Every structure is written in structure tokens, then in C-alpha cells.
Amino acid sequence: MTIQDFVSGFLGASPIEMIASVCGFICVFLIIKRNIWCWFFGLIQVSLFTYVFFESKLYSNAGLHVIYIFLQFYGWWNWRSHKDNSDDIVVEHSTTTFMLTIVACALLSTLLVGFIMNTYTDANMAYLDAFIACTSLIAQVLLTRRYWFNWVLWICVNVVSIYVYFQQGLYPTVLLYGCFLVMCLFGIAEWLKKYNGQSGMVSDA
User: Fold this and answer.
1) Domain range holding 171?
2) What angle do CA 18, 21, 27 make, to 5 degrees?
């Protein structure tokens, strides 16, 4: 794969993938800023990517994005209902036990879904696709519930996603997830700063 091949593949990408990628970038930028409009752009992104991933036979990812559609509405409601006195969302704590449990769930669900997809479908890169889907779903739920640990999972997802989508020739998506990876580093720093600044604040998760 040469740079020329990458550029050619990027320019030849479908308009649907391009629009989804732009909306995804805007969505993550707004998430970092804890801006509730992230869910609007996220809804457009996940709806379009459902089609893109199904066409690429990344069925775990396609199914994940169908679930994402419903989580956009839940996330909007949850963020809207949990704000502090400055009208900013309240960031939730993540204990060591909680984080280890989340990681174990991500790995076990990856093995299960990967086995099913590898055995009963013609899915490409079944186990890596399953890891992206399962870990992303868990991370998305944590995001809707405002746990800062969601960023750690997204970092892992983005690293694997860049490799998988590159192999599938989804070059705008590769670029998007490369940006996501960098943005996640800013995101976790921003959310931890917000959490550490919440002195004496109590919130229902």
C-alpha cells in the first residue's frame, strides 16, 4: 500500500462514508467539551455507519451501530438530567474493581461474539470486528452514564479499528479513527480535570 493508493482510495470513498466521518469528528469534539449537541451529530454518524459496515461485511460493527442509534437518545436524556450548577454534566467516578470488571466483560463478550461470527457468518476479521463491537458498546454505555473510564476503552477500540478499517479499504474511516485516537487523549484529560474539580458533589449514575 503506497501513499498514492491510500489517497486514491480516500478520494474514491462513498459520500455516505465521508459524511459519517465528518459527523463523527464533530461528535467526539463535542463529547470532549461535554456539549449535549454531540448526540445529534452522533445520531447521524451511527446511522450512516450502519450501512457502511454492513456493506463491508463487518456485521458485528453494523449491529453495534443499530444499538448506537437508540443509545444516542438515551445519552441525550441522561446528560440533560445530570448537570451541575454551572450547567455542565457531572462526571462519574470509576473504581478499580469497576474498571477490571468492565475489561473482563469486554474480553469475554469478544470471544463469544467472535466465535459466533466466525462460525456462522462470512464476516471479515471476525474476532477483531467483535472486539471493536463489544468494547465500543460497553464504552458507549459508560459514555451515556458519564463515566470517565469510557475514554480508556475508546483508546483501545480506536487502535484496533484503525488496523481493521485499513485492511477493509475504508480510508476516510481510518483517518477518522486516527483523529479519534488523538482526541481520546485530550478527552480523558479533560474529563478527569472536570471530575477532580467536582468538590463535594453527589450524583446518581
Assistant:
1) 3-83+92-196
2) 145
Which residues, at least 6 apart from 144, have a Cβ–Cβ distance to it below 8 Å? 71, 74, 75, 78, 79
Q: Is residue 173 part of a domain?
A: yes
- Domain-located, residue 204: no
Note the pLDDT tens digit of each residue in 146-204: 999 999 999 999 999 999 888 888 777 788 889 889 999 999 999 999 888 875 454 44
Q: Are 177 and 158 in contact (CB under 8 A)?
A: yes
Residue 149, CB-side half-sphere exposure with 13 Å CA sphere: 17
Q: How many domains does the chain have?
A: 1
Q: What residue type is 62 in one-letter code?
A: A
Q: pTM for this structure?
A: 0.80
